[in-house]
Amino acid sequence: MTIARIIEIQRNATQSGKARNGRWLLEFERQQPQRPDPLTGWAGSGDTNTQVRLTFDTKEEALSYAERKGLTVHLIPAPPVSLKLQAYADNFR
User: Does the keyword Electron transport belong to this entry (predicted)?
Assistant: First the structure.
């Protein structure tokens, strides 16, 4: 059985806009453990589902997609953002 995570995408600290807030990401959890490659030593596995990342506009779209495909889902909402508003002059007190 394939297990997927649905994660609410947060904006980066370098982004000030709110254009892509509220988007949801579906990604598959690893089914096989990673093992070192004998030639290069890099970690990898034969599980290619971890390379698939799908974005959706709403949580309901992501959940309906997972239901249609028969996926077991772990839903991970974004933590609440707390803003500390202060004036620039407060840095010099």
Answer: yes
Q: Which pTM was predicted?
A: 0.73
**Burial code of 20-35, b = ≥16 C-beta within 10 A, e = fewer?**
eeebbebebeeeeeee
Instruction: Report yes or no on 39 lying in a domain.
Output: no
Cα-flanking dihedrals φ and ψ of residue 44, to 5°?
-170, 175
86 in any annotated domain:
yes
Domain coverage including residue 60: 1-11+21-29+49-93
CB 23 within 8 A of CB 56: yes
Domain count, the chain: 1
Asked whether residue 60 is domain-assigned, the answer is yes
pLDDT truncated to tens, each residue of the chain (93 aa)?
689 999 998 877 776 677 777 899 999 998 888 899 899 989 988 888 889 999 999 999 999 999 999 999 999 988 887 777 888 888 888
* Strand-pair category, 24-28 with 3-8: antiparallel
